[in-house]
TrEMBL record:
Belongs to the ABC-4 integral membrane protein family. LolC/E subfamily. The chain crosses the membrane at residues 28-47, 254-277, 313-334, 355-373, 402-423, 435-457, 490-513, 726-745, 765-786, 816-835. GO terms for biological process: lipoprotein localization to outer membrane. Keywords: Cell membrane, Membrane, Transmembrane, Transmembrane helix. Residues 261-383, 728-842 form the ABC3 transporter permease C-terminal domain. This is ABC3 transporter permease C-terminal domain-containing protein. It comes from Mycobacterium novum. It comes from the Bacteria. Its main location: membrane. GO terms for cellular component: plasma membrane protein complex. It is found in: Cell membrane. It is a multi-pass membrane protein.
Length: 849
């Protein structure tokens, strides 16, 4: 019995579903592509995340070599004092202690022909001859303690004679650096190795180093030695095994939340589109389903057939999506590599793991089957008698009301907006609030997009032209056709609304980030002149900060009343994770206050100000104590304020410059703000700075120039987002075409009937085109209106994931542009089936009536 039932199910699947897929291969391909677009974005995001993580880990392992243990201080930059080095060497079981300085260096290539120079970022290492896995043993002769300066052969071949290595002390000519072929394997050749003593001077480490790599004595156990080191050095030092990659700033802390938001959008769009296409497919085969049911097919077998068809299309779409994701991951990874080079000196190649391909295919299958459940249930509940007697279409027209569905979806979407807003009113400092905000954003996106489709259909239904106007016959027939099948009308309107909403949402979000960055920069400069030795957005991670002599010259310039410094300090928290301190002589706080007293009051009371993401991840509250520094220099400070800051992904700590130097020692400034003296303008001071000779390049701009530079540099973060933006828009526009082409296939018989009643081919073509314009305009209008609510939900999700409170921006120009483009796409999509309809013979299409 069971075997017979299974055979019947397979037979039904072959006749109704798979035969339809073969017969309408083009339609099936469109459905698969609609789903594949969402899979492509997800795959591209996974490739980017994997590539960045793998590159950073690989460089860490290359530096570690065979050393099984690593010692890191409270600050990742200069966190190990000479006393700690000696204490480490004295621990039983320790073989050798290898001190290492690891920095991010800039190599400036001015060009032989006097043209514009280029700047590249890479890894700067300071080592002695004990690091034999980095330094060729042949380089260090007997009794030699340090190797000569060297760069990789591939890097040396790409430079000319004017190339310099920019450091915290000035610039070093790399002309006499050794070219070492073995270094080509380290960080893809973007590496420079300095003698340890030289690195301490050039990278402003004083007598300190960044980390210690520890090898073991014969027969020593790594776990036992690790425990002895922890006991000897104390809790403010971290002793990490080789299996734990060396920590460094991960740009995914900033990029991943933003990319994640885009991935969620793509998934939501994919689910909506595959649902629409599957529903239209079911409607097209109602009569076949009724016949099969009358012959004994069970509702379960009918449902299984459509779910299997969806799985087949999902597999095909996933395959296309995976291949597309691999292609679009190239520019995304390239953008991430540019950022990673600046923050940790690591270049990022594309890494494609087989697991990503598997996850992409499975995701597509699950999305397709999940999206098809609703239409499949509808197919299994097909009224047999009504469908076979020809009453189904009339019953659907007279009885099916979509107001309830539209209002229900609208309520669901708005509830998502409300949930996201309520969860973030206090900054989402608790884990469950963050989860609620993200879920609310997804619910808002899907609910409101679907509501847009049904509201558009209902609005079109409400338009009833006056019957006595003979000139409007074409429009009247088009409107009647749209009213006769509201499900089809909703599908067209929804397909138009998707690209419009996506365009408005993403454009507004990116514009809001740009506005926020500009406001932060203006607040930081606060009417002062901003000065840097690198690029204004790169002052923190790059070891090319202000040398003491440069600071002294700036302070002594005529027209400068005073200078105020800003520095970045990367630190390790108690659990080994990283955070980033911003130290300022005159702190500025252009961020939203979430908890505690004002930031200024906290700074005056020697309390720290922290970002909301850091507070949530570490479960920190106002009044909690954080310990900064190592050994005798360690200092406990309480948390006075929590702010919504996007800097370093919300993992930011603010403290006065003087306190930072007490804890971590002298810190070279990355930015300097100069206040013009009375009687001098900013322009005069900038001109004076430009005319002064410094040992390192110095750039000065006024407040407006600084804001412009910061806003422009934010574009580096937004490049991968813009790539995904246009990818999503392309997917949405192609889905418009696919939906309308499928609708055109469904209504051939309807068009044939109009022709049989005397309509000319021109009239038929006009009717079909007008339907697309009317439905598209309604979808675009409702989509633009509801996109405001969707933007609010996504804006709230940004508070959780990025720690950023952005203004609610509605980009009117983009809204109009993409509404027009979407409508044009709708007309274009309608032209093809309209033209095909005029080529068909009414008798052929109506022979079954």
């Amino acid at each position: 019995m069971a075997r017979g039932t299974l055979a019947a199910t397979f037979g039904l699947l072959r006749i109704i579903n798979f035969r339809a897929v073969r017969k309408h291969a083009f339609r099936a391909a469109l459905a698969a592509f609609s789903l594949g677009g969402g899979v492509a974005v997800v795959v591209a995001v996974m490739i980017e995340v994997t590539s960045v993580s793998k590159a950073v880990e690989d460089v860490g392992y290359q530096i570690a070599g065979p050393a099984p243990l690593r010692v890191v201080g409270a600050a990742t930059r200069g966190g190990i004092s000479p006393a700690v080095v000696e204490d480490t060497r004295s621990v039983a079981g320790v073989g050798a202690v290898v001190p290492v300085i690891r920095g991010v260096t800039m190599i400036r290539n001015d060009g032989d022909s006097g043209g514009k120079g280029t700047e590249s970022y890479g890894l700067g290492l300071g080592v002695d001859c004990s690091a034999q896995w980095i330094v060729d043993p042949k380089v260090c002769q007997a009794g030699q303690q340090e190797p000569p300066p060297a760069i990789s052969k591939s890097l040396g071949d790409s430079l000319d004679a004017s190339a310099t290595l920019v450091t915290d002390a000035g610039q070093l000519s790399v002309g006499k650096f050794q070219r070492v072929a073995d270094l080509d394997e380290v960080n893809n050749g973007l590496v420079a190795v300095l003698p340890l003593s030289m690195a301490k001077v050039q990278f402003a480490r004083g007598d300190r180093v960044d980390m210690l790599y520890v090898t073991l004595a014969p027969d020593a156990d790594a776990g036992e030695v690790q425990q002895r080191l922890k006991t000897t050095l104390g809790p403010t030092y971290s002793v990490q095994p080789r299996s734990e990659p060396a920590k460094g700033y991960n740009v995914n802390d900033v990029l991943l939340p933003l990319l994640g938001i885009f991935a969620l959008i793509s998934i939501g769009v994919g689910v909506i589109l595959i649902t629409q296409i599957t529903r239209l497919s079911v409607e097209e085969r109602r009569r076949e389903i009724a016949i099969a049911s009358a012959l004994g097919a069970s509702p379960a077998s009918i449902m299984t057939g459509f779910l299997s068809e969806a799985a087949l299309l999902g597999a095909a779409g996933s395959a296309m999506g995976v291949l597309t994701g691999i292609v679009i991951s190239e520019p995304i990874v390239a953008s991430a590599s540019e950022l990673t080079e600046r923050f940790v000196g690591v270049t990022v190649p594309v890494v494609l793991k087989p697991a990503i391909l598997v996850v992409g295919v499975l995701a597509g299958l699950l999305l397709a089957v999940g999206a098809a459940i609703g239409p499949a249930l509808s197919a299994s509940n097909t009224p047999i008698a009504a469908e076979l007697s020809g009453r189904a279409a009339q019953e659907q027209t007279t009885q099916r009301k979509i107001w309830f569905r539209a209002l229900l979806l609208l309520a669901i979407g708005l509830s998502g907006v409300i949930a996201a807003r309520l969860a973030t009113l206090s900054g989402a400092l608790v884990a469950w609030q963050a989860i609620l905000a993200d879920v609310g954003a997804v619910v808002a996106l899907i609910g409101l997009l679907l509501a847009t489709a049904y509201l558009s259909a209902q609005a079109i239904t409400s338009v009833r032209p006056r019957p006595d106007k003979s000139r409007g016959a074409t429009l009247t027939i088009a409107l009647n056709a749209l009213r006769s099948d509201r499900s089809r009308t909703a599908a067209i309107s929804g397909a138009i609304a998707v690209p419009v909403v996506v365009a408005i949402l993403l454009s507004g979000f990116l514009v809001a980030i740009h506005i926020g960055a500009t406001r932060v920069a203006e607040s930081q400069a606060d009417g002062r002149i901003a000065i840097t030795t690198t690029q204004f957005a790169d002052y923190g991670p790059v070891d090319a900060r202000f040398a003491p002599q440069t600071v002294n010259k700036l302070n002594a310039l005529t027209g400068v009343e005073k200078i105020e410094r800003m520095a970045e300090i990367e630190i390790s928290l108690k659990d080994g994770s990283l955070a980033h301190i911003q130290a300022q002589d005159r702190p500025t706080f252009p961020f939203g206050l979430l908890a505690g007293q004002s930031p200024e009051a906290s700074q005056k009371a020697n309390q720290v100000v922290i970002g909301s993401v850091l507070a949530r991840e570490k479960k920190l509250h106002i009044g909690d104590i954080l310990v900064f520094g190592s050994g005798l220099d360690a200092q406990a400070m309480s948390i006075g304020t929590i702010v919504a800051t996007p800097e370093y992904g919300g993992r930011r700590i603010y403290m006065p410059y003087s306190i930072a130097e007490q804890i971590y020692g002298p810190q070279p400034a990355g930015l300097i703000f100069a206040t013009p003296a009375a009687g001098f303008t900013a322009g005069q001071v900038i001109e004076s700075i430009g005319a002064t000779q410094f040992d390192q390049p110095v750039t000065a701009v006024d407040t407006d120039g600084y804001a412009s530079e910061i806003a422009t540099s934010i574009g580096r973060y937004l490049t991968p987002l813009n790539t995904l933006k246009y990818g999503l828009l392309g997917i949405a526009f192609i889905s418009v075409l696919s939906t309308l082409l499928l609708v055109g296939i469904r209504r051939r018989r309807e068009v044939a009937l109009i022709q049989a009643l005397g309509a000319t081919r021109v009239r038929v073509f006009s009717i079909t085109t007008i339907e697309a314009v009317v439905a598209g305009a309604a979808g675009g209008l409702f989509g633009a209106v509801l996109s405001i609510a969707i933007s609010e939900a996504v804006r709230r999700a940004a508070v959780v994931n990025v720690g950023l409170i952005t203004p609610l921006v509605f980009p009117w120009s983009d809204a109009v542009l993409y509404a027009v483009l979407a409508t044009v796409a709708a007309v274009f999509a309608a032209v093809i089936p309209a033209w095909k309809s005029t080529r068909s013979t009414p008798a052929t299409e109506l022979r079954d009536e």
